[in-house]
Amino acid sequence: MEGPMTSKYSIVTSDLTVKALQDSGYKSTAHAIAELIDNGLEADADLVELFVVEGNEHTGRRSRYRVEKIAVLDNGTGMDPETLRQSLRFGAGTRQQRKGIGRFGVGLPNSSISQCNRVDVWSWTNGPENALHTYLDLKEIAQGLEEVPEPKLDAVPDEWQALSEGLGRSGTLVQWTELERVQWRGAQTTVANTENLIGRIYRRLIAKGRRIKLVPVRGWAPLPGAGPTRPNDPLYLMTPSATPEPFDKKPMFRPFGASNTGEVGVERFMVRAANGHEYPVYVRSSLSVDAARRTDIAGEPWPANVAPSLKPGETPWGKHAAKNLGISLIRADRELDLDTGWINSYDPVERWWGVEIDFPPDLDEIFGVTNNKQSATIFSSLAHFNWREEAAGLSWDEYREELREEGDARLPLIEIVYHIREKLLGRLRTELTHQTEGTRASRKRHEAAEVQAEVAVQRRRTETRPSLTDQLAEETTEEESKQLQYESLVETHRYSPADAQRIIEETMSQGKHVRLLTSRNPDSPAFFNVEYIPNMLQVALNMDHPVYNDLIAVLDGDIDGASREELAERLALAANAFKLILISWARFEDEQPEKPRERAKRMRQDWGRIASEFLGASDADDEDDE
């Protein structure tokens, strides 16, 4: 029932105020526009058109163009007078039922006043010339207007009819004017920034045949850039798509991972809703094909206008993928959010995997879907959830059973999070590491350290007794050493045979006796592992150890585009990680019995002396040259 101070058509219900609703939490103008597109698609439109109209703004002697109107027109079923009037009430939407992409039916007024001071709506069921029109104007509301104006017959303005491609016998037009909070100045810029998000939010519906056309307009004439929105798939499995060539016409990623559905890379979880029924949640995953990150894949060269010397992340498709980082949350074929809480922002490899969580509207409360359909707060809050901290020594199976016995409502999501965190992401990252770790570009970042280490090794060879690798070299032929290196690279570190062969040849031709690698080794507690191969001391940094993520990756990661503040933060994090490593060694010594503690102390001192030689090797070599 309505409260005693509100009428059937009051603009504001309960104690809501328009001022509070202006700050509705929409992340961007594009997110607010998406609410209007939702309404058209919910009304069974097969074409929704977005028009962004700019006008000439004179400022002194200067003349520049600025967005003056934004409109969304659809050819859906249209609204009768009662539905039209209700559609502009806050908190009184017409889509309370759980089906389709709608949530609470409050998107039209909320999204509109988050961007403009006036919204006009025309809707028709018998031709645009017989449209009904009503509006909200914040100035009138501030002056005491209490009810949504009664809809009146008012034909759709001629200029909108002339612009529309698919004007139908039924439909709706929403027009925003007095745009005080729109992010972008020009029409083309607004469309360009909107297309990426709209293509991602509605990628599935677009792939199923729904059309969303974006049109920048000046002087009531379309500007260049008008056209249908192409799917923007963060899993990069859809074709055709908005991905830059050559991956606009072929998938840039491939399905990856286990499956309990018969479809590669798709896992199904059954989740019980508050109504007692169980509903499926699908977790889909993918990772890049080799050709997206390597130029040496037979039959799949990079386009002629893309230099093969570019890092994969600097290619047009690599930059595109960098804008789609995170886990995509899909509800009823519409994306709610691209959740970035799961990624390591310092690791450029993160752009090369995709994960999608697909759930039905019946699970809105379980996932914590917000009214504006921009996030699933309960699921996202678990992005950094550490079950071990809560488990207090219990195994995963014991902890899960305890949650089940306690009736913990989070259990279904925690099980999904466990699958993503403990199984899926680790496998994806491991596979991506193996994909390029043997390339020249990947190996290049280790060259300076290897060269400096080689100087120190050669000096120590003249000053100390032979090392183990030196002794083994005296007992082994060069071909046998090559074979042992090959087996290590291919079988232990999962390099491709071609990469392994090339690395061995390059190392031996350069006369190096030290090799630095990065490798996945989740079963090892060490943050680096050492292999003693005849004539080759091989050191593998363990990418599954926290030291790698907190120190090496922070310093060794891609710095292109990073601000001074970001670089300073990375240095501070790395310095802190290094200090913790030293303190952890000190604690290791502290925990030893007396004799082992003395041995550890001597080892620390010996290692320090050798470290001094290695760190000073380059300077000493320069002095010798002089």
Please state roughly what percent of the residues sit in beta strands, choosing from under 5%, 5-15%, 15-25%, 25-35%, 35-45% or over 45%: 15-25%
Described by strand count, sense and barrel closure, the largest sheet is:
9 strands, mixed
Q: Based on CA inertia axes, which overall geometry fits?
A: elongated
CATH level 1 name of the largest domain: Alpha Beta
CATH superfamily of the largest domain: Histidine kinase-like ATPase, C-terminal domain
Structural class: alpha+beta
Please give the count of helices: 24
Describe the structure.
- The chain is α+β, with helices and mostly antiparallel strands.
- The chain has 3 domains: 18-228, Histidine kinase-like ATPase, C-terminal domain (Heat Shock Protein 90); 253-431, no CATH class; 437-544, no CATH class.
- Helix content is 40%, strand content 19%.
- Strands 1, 2, 3, 4, 5, 6, 7, 8 and 9 form a 9-stranded mixed β-sheet that branches. Strands 10, 11, 12, 13, 14 and 15 form a 6-stranded mixed β-sheet that branches.
- Strand 13 (327-331) and strand 14 form a beta hairpin.
- Helix 21 runs antiparallel to helix 22.
- The termini are far apart.
- Mean pLDDT is 89; it is low at 1-5 and 620-626.
Features:
alpha+beta; Heat Shock Protein 90; 6-stranded mixed sheet; 24 helices; 18 strands; 40% helix; 19% strand; elongated; disordered N terminus
What's the helix and strand layout?
Elements: H1 18-22, H2 29-42, E1 47-59, E2 62-74, H3 81-86, H4 107-113, E3 118-124, E4 132-137, H5 138-142, E5 152-153, H6 158-163, E6 171-177, H7 187-201, H8 203-207, E7 211-218, E8 221-222, E9 227-228, E10 253-255, E11 266-272, E12 278-288, H9 290-293, H10 316-322, E13 327-331, E14 334-339, E15 353-359, H11 364-367, H12 377-381, H13 387-391, H14 396-406, H15 411-436, H16 440-444, H17 447-463, H18 468-475, H19 478-492, H20 497-509, E16 514-519, E17 528-533, E18 536-542, H21 546-556, H22 564-590, H23 594-615, H24 617-625
Parallel strand pairs: 1-7, 13-15, 16-18
Antiparallel strand pairs: 1-2, 2-6, 3-4, 3-6, 4-5, 7-8, 7-9, 10-12, 11-12, 12-15, 13-14, 17-18
Helix pairs in contact: 2-4, 2-7, 19-20, 21-22
